[in-house]
Design a protein that fits this description.
CATH topology of the largest domain: Ammonium transporter fold
Strand content: 5-15%
CATH class of the largest domain: Mainly Alpha
Radius of gyration: 28 Å
Order of helices and strands: HHHHHHHHHHHHHHEHEEEEHE
Shape: elongated
CATH superfamily of the largest domain: Ammonium transporter AmtB like domains
Strand order of the largest sheet: 2-5-1-6
Structural class: alpha+beta
Number of strands: 6
């Protein structure tokens, strides 16, 4: 007999968890640079669309089939008998869609940590692997009647089964990819690479917080009894309380540590608290939820700092810390603060070390399984089609290089964000003989008696700016003016495509660098700039050389040579 109350509750939860994809998409897009926005949105759409048929094909059977304690069964298209695992009163297909959206959540976590430098084809492949067998196998251990479930491991809504699995995959992937170009200086210190839109990131956080009530609350998989109603109320309350305390903790902690409350880190903390409470939201009281939230609030800050500064693993959105670290932390803390039955009482509530040990074992075993298998998957992808995008494509941005998307913000800005202040030197490949052009040099040195100040104006690609400024500093140029401009040369722009329709991009984004030279030889400036900017392809830029009569420093009134010297 099916229960209308239980069925609609599960379906409502499935809809809310599905909408978490929008929250993840907004968070990841906001915390990364504008030139990768379309790529981020595309990945968050496709991991759900790839994972859905694969989970239907074999994932659900692996996870919930009554095979062995380690593995369910291979059941294409969910045709077997699952009556033994279905919640009371919930039909198979309602439960199947509920579990499908959880699987998609685990897969989508990875994209944030590996953002801005991963090939789109590689992303599709490893996302498929997560949905096809990585998540289902560990999910069988925890929720499908496997060996961890038999031992009493408790992960109510997926701190370990969903979030830590995604976080571990993110950790391995980000480590194998390496940091984004320009993330670390020559001294090894990390450079800040701010996201381009905190408003979008904040919207993502609020969407996720809202949807988390379905993620955790609907995991009661029923509302047809007083016990389930009471449990759902506690789950909702604990979920909200832990998130709020984590957010407050991080705000205060960063305020004390950095002198000002960190906005993006505080957004991360809300998600960290939600992840941490997910394992035990039904098993702890509000006091336990407060402690879990506070612990996650501290942990996310320290973890981000560790991976950024010590491990030097570049995670643009903090997914490793939020989902991996806080997912494991929340699972273990459930072993301390659970107030449930004698077999599920935390250490601090008289349960002894047995339940805590099971929680530790479950988190460790799941992390080990995930790490080993995803390492194999990433290695195979890396050795075949390649995992990381080319340096030139990364500098250009994944939107243009992977999707032919000129900008994700057409109509809202004149120039796409190019990240030039945050990028490093661009490796220059040898030009192909077919499309290379010969650049003739006609700039002349100063004639005797001419002004001793010379303006060198360089027009180049935005992605080449960091390499140019580094080279100029190396030869003693300490001052320059940089302007974002648009223009075209004899090639009259370049056609792009949107939804298969040509879009004529007549004006291309360029950077204009103005340098007034006094003591450094002009020829050295020109030759250095050419050596850095030259690829042999159309669009390398132009260099203009002009005489300057005089230079005046406004503040002091100094003129000529003195006005050009560093203060």
């Amino acid at each position: 007999m099916y229960s209308p109350a239980n069925t609609i509750w599960v379906l409502l939860g499935a809809a809310l968890v599905f909408f978490m994809q929008a929250g993840f998409a907004m968070c990841e897009a906001g915390f990364t640079r504008a030139k990768n926005t379309g790529n981020i949105l595309m990945k968050n759409l496709m991991d759900f669309c790839i994972g859905t048929p694969l989970y239907w094909l074999v994932g659900f059977g692996i996870m919930f089939g009554s095979g062995t304690a380690l593995f369910g069964w291979i059941d294409p298209f969910i045709l077997g008998d699952y009556s033994g695992v279905l919640p009371a009163g919930v039909p198979l297909w309602a439960y199947a869609i509920f579990q499908t959206v959880f699987c998609a959540t685990s897969a989508t976590i990875v994209s944030g940590a590996m953002a801005e430098r991963t090939r789109f084809s590689a992303y599709c492949l490893y996302s498929a692997a997560i949905s096809l067998f990585i998540y289902p196998v560990s999910g069988h251990w925890i929720w499908g009647g496997g060996w961890l479930a038999d031992m009493g491991f408790h992960d109510f809504a997926g701190s370990t089964a969903v979030h830590m699995v995604g976080g571990v995959c993110a950790l391995i992937g980000a480590k194998m990819l390496g940091p984004r170009i320009g993330k670390y200086g020559s001294d090894g210190k990390p450079r800040a690479m701010p996201g381009h839109n905190l408003s979008i990131a904040a919207l993502g956080v609020f969407i996720l917080w809202f949807c988390w009530f379905g993620f955790n609350g609907a995991s009661t998989v029923g509302m047809d009894s007083d016990e389930l109603i009471i449990s759902a109320g506690l789950v909702f309350f604990n979920t909200n309380l832990a998130a709020a305390l984590a957010t407050l903790t991080t705000m205060i902690f960063t305020w004390v540590r950095y002198g000002k409350p960190d906005v993006s880190m505080t957004f991360n903390a809300a998600l960290a608290g939600l992840v941490g409470i997910t394992a035990g939201c039904d098993a702890v009281d509000p006091f336990g939820a407060v402690v879990i939230g506070i612990c996650c609030g501290f942990a996310v800050v320290l973890s981000v700092a560790f991976f950024d500064n010590v491990a030097r693993i570049d995670d643009p959105v903090g997914a490793i810390s939020v989902h991996g670290v806080c997912g494991a932390l929340g699972t273990v803390l459930t072993g301390l603060f659970a107030t449930g039955t004698s077999t599920m009482k935390g250490l601090f509530y008289g349960g002894g070390f047995t339940f805590l040990g099971v929680q530790l074992l479950g988190a460790a075993a799941t992390a080990l399984w995930t790490a080993v298998i995803i390492t194999v998957v990433f290695t195979v992808i890396k050795k075949t089609i390649g995992l990381r995008a080319d340096a030139a494509d990364e500098e250009m941005g994944m939107d243009r290089s992977e999707h032919g998307l000129y900008t994700a913000y057409a109509g809202f800005c004149m120039l796409p964000e190019d990240g030039t202040a945050e990028t490093g030197p661009v490796p220059v490949s040898a030009p192909a003989p077919d499309d290379s052009v010969t650049v003739s040099r006609s700039a002349k040195e100063k004639a005797p008696g001419a002004p001793v100040y010379t303006r060198v104006q360089i027009i180049c690609r935005p992605s080449s700016l960091q390499s140019l400024t580094t080279a100029m500093n190396r030869i003693g140029i300490t001052g320059m003016t940089v302007t974002n401009v648009m223009g075209y040369g004899t090639q009259k722009g370049k056609p792009e495509y949107y939804r298969g329709t040509p879009v004529e991009v007549t004006l291309l984004p360029k950077v204009q660098v103005d340098i007034v030279v006094s003591s450094v030889p002009v020829r050295q400036v020109i030759d250095t700039a050419r050596s850095v900017l030259h690829t042999g392809h159309i669009g390398d830029g132009k260099i203009f050389v002009q005489d300057v009569e005089n230079v005046v420093r406004v503040r002091t009134g100094e003129e000529g040579f003195d006005a050009l010297q560093t203060e």
